[in-house]
Amino acid sequence: MLHNSDRQHADEQETAIEGSVSTETQNEAVEDKRQPGDQDNGAERKGADAARPAETISYSASPGLAARLDKLKISFGFTSYQSNLLYLVGRNGQGGINIHQSVMAKPMGICPDRQGGLVLTGGYQVLRFQNVLEPDQRANNLFDACYVPRTIHVTGRLDAHDVGVDDQGRVIFVNTRYNCLATTSDRHSFEPLWRPPFVSALIDEDRCHLNGLAMEDGKPRYVTAVSASDTIDGWRDRRADGGIVMDVQSGEIICRGLSMPHSPRVHAGELWVLNSGTGELGVIRCEGSGEGTFEPRVFCPGFLRGLAFQGNFAFVGLSKPRYKRFEGLALDQRLKEADSEPWCGIQIIDLSSGACVDWLRIDGNLAELYDLEVLPGVEAPMAVSPGSHEAASTITIAR
């Protein structure tokens, strides 16, 4: 049962954009300590208008996006540390797309848990959300999934990136600031679980920019890093071709020479990776006992971060450059050769043909996304912001 002491989610606002896309934003007061263009520092923002300059952001969707989500029986979510918003994309019941936006502190990695909930890294927290709706319930006469924060671990600012849940139900996240995989601790900021053998100490220095995590059979299996550096900020000089993929179980580097790789994922028996600095989605080919190679499958016009799969479709997140150009990256030249401008948004790739079959595009004041996740069996998802009026007033009781 779900109760709300006030009108259900009273602070949400709905605006029609591009005819077939509607957006709803839930407000929460947070404080922003970032400087313009700063990805790695602050997380909290004060005032919803500061967190989401909606009047300067526009959304457009391919004509077939709503129908494809309906056919696949899915929705999807993505995060942006730049806007401090979690975006949940579903159908609006009128043949179009609805984008529900919830204010979060620097949201980064997102993944499902084993109870139908979501786990999110953001700011100085690791958050677990649960869907509080029964199959026959709807929030605001539309949403069939309402993700409410139920567990919040205060970790301090670890610059946590990708996140997963293991076969024991533990949250495993990439602790980029300390160059390791970690889990939450009841007493301390985190419990370290694994770090690359080339990093000589557990230390508060982002040396290799460990960022991506692939889970397999309920265990952390592969990670990506921008370099194999063992000095503070060493990765920043290796962005063009220093990127690596590592096997967590063996501790070995299985692929080198990548450009800022992100979002490793195991799908259909293959290890997929986004070679972000070249704009390529591809797989790691390992022959024999030696190191493997990256085999590009698709070029997408943007800096790629965030990858999820549903059947034979890949959902890929694209971002624009932070400072007008992708300086020092091959992506800059690839865009020129393709006579294309960089995208911000989501492209859905048919893995059989390599074609982009549907898309959600974002223009205006939002340029950088981080992670995304597919939500099977959900038509119209929403989430409640931690610390918001709705989190305080929404009460649920087991039937």
Write the layout of secondary structure elements.
Blueprint: E1 2-4, E2 13-17, E3 21-26, H1 48-51, E4 57-61, H2 65-72, E5 74-80, E6 85-91, E7 97-103, E8 107-112, E9 118-122, E10 125-131, E11 145-154, E12 160-165, E13 171-175, E14 180-183, E15 191-194, E16 210-216, E17 219-225, E18 243-247, E19 253-258, E20 261-267, E21 270-275, E22 280-285, E23 293-299, E24 303-310, E25 313-319, H3 330-337, E26 345-350, E27 355-364, E28 372-376, E29 381-383, H4 389-393, E30 394-396
Parallel strand pairs: 3-7, 11-29
Antiparallel strand pairs: 1-30, 2-3, 4-27, 5-6, 5-28, 6-7, 8-9, 9-10, 10-11, 12-13, 13-14, 14-15, 16-17, 17-18, 18-19, 20-21, 21-22, 22-23, 24-25, 25-26, 26-27
Report on this model:
- The chain is mainly beta.
- It has four helices and 30 strands.
- The longest helix has 8 residues.
Strand order of the largest sheet: 2-3-7-6-5-28
Shape: globular
Q: What radius of gyration results from the CA coordinates?
A: 20 Å
Helix tally equals 4
The assigned structural class equals: mainly beta
Give the strand tally: 30
Span between termini: 6 Å
Task: Report the β-strand fraction as a percent range.
Answer: over 45%
Instruction: Give the low-pLDDT segments.
Output: 5-19, 29-54
Proportion in helices? under 10%
For the report, how would you describe the main beta sheet? 6 strands, mixed
Mean pLDDT: 89
